[in-house]
Amino acid sequence: MLKKLLAVALVAFSLGAFAQGKTQIEFWTWYLSPKFDPFIDGVIKDFQAKYPNITVKHVDKQDTIERDFQAQIALGQAPDVVNLWLDSTYTAVQAGLLRPTTDFIPVAQLKSIYFPNIIDMYTINGQVYGFPWYGYVDQGVMMYNPELLSKAGVDIAKIKTTSDLLEASKTVKQKTGSYGWLPPVKDPNGASFLGQFFLEGLPIYDKEGKAAFNTDAHAALLQKFVDLMKADVIPQDLLRKEAFQLTNELYSQGKAAFIVGGPQSLNRVKDSNKDIYGKTKIVDAPLGAAKVQTGGAFTLVIPKASKHPKEAALFALFMTNKTNQAKFASVVPIVPTSIGSALDPVLQTKAKSTDPIDIATSRVAGAGKLINAGFKPPKNTEAVYKNFNDNIEAAFLGKKTPKQALDDAVTFWNANAK
Predict the structure, then answer these.
(1) Residue 137 and residue 264: Cα distance in Å, rounded?
(2) What are the tens digits of pLDDT across the range 289-343?
(3) Which of 48, 89, 168, 259 stands 20 to 30 A from 270 (CA)?
(4) What DSSP line would sit under 287-336, residue for residue?
């Protein structure tokens, strides 16, 4: 632990040595304002107190962040620190827009500050891009309505795997008319059904790096979910709404028994139905055969066009340190990606709370070391993911067999993800 603390201190000292003159850097976040302004403003204030020669201008971008990022670079007005996610980071690297984080900090030291699996996630062509910030897990924990399970005669202690959860969902639907678990089927911002393959230990790519999710085993798993939708064990509305959104709606109405995901899933339930929220119980999420948590992490990147890259790196390191990640996790149930954040006393106290969000937050606080994105994003992500989702939908609607849908998706993926 002492070695890790010394490594962080030495990195901060070496970067801070460059911050001698008065400098202003511009920091872009994504969809964090105004709700999290107090937290971000507080960290900026602490940073500026420590480094009085650097001031930070905070700008929050929302759905236009990628477009605005490229436009500002073209205008010669690049921001200095930008909050991106995995796909957008890969796209920016492919366009030659980012400085490797390893220009500032050796990879060995990065892996002593942040979980190595998150560093590996952001390693592209042998270089690390970005300072890992707040993470998330797709499985996280399982939150459930004990009254619905009691009516269905389902024993929560017997749900250990995703297969168990699907069987329990059949029982819940048969006995109560409500749904059980609503798995991610079609996500407009990604290729969420690929996660089902990865959770069960089925490969996404072959050894040559080509898409290979069209084996008989993949098709059989997709067929299993298609059959569940035909039987109305999982609703067809999953083809029109994200699982996160639909689950929150139905759970809040007492029409779904389970929420599998991060603690933030309960925020809407708390606002919509305090009675159901108060009754909600929390257990560890059931996992698939691979025994991993799919998920990801957001990051802070430094553009090549930044006029103050060393000051930017110093700020990114400060914003993402274990103390500030723990503070962020105490405000909103993110998963810290900095080693040691989960041991923060504030997060430890949440484990003793009776509040469902607090309990869930404490359970996922240490999940950063388990996060696995499942696969590296392809090039031309927007077109490739759209084609994948179109084919998955065709299988669920009976327009294609699962095998044909996956064959077509793999063919398009390998032809266009170059």
Answers:
(1) 11
(2) 988 888 889 999 999 999 999 999 999 999 999 999 999 998 888 899 999 998 8
(3) 168
(4) B-TT--EEEEEEEEEEETT-S-HHHHHHHHHHHTSHHHHHHHHHHS--EE
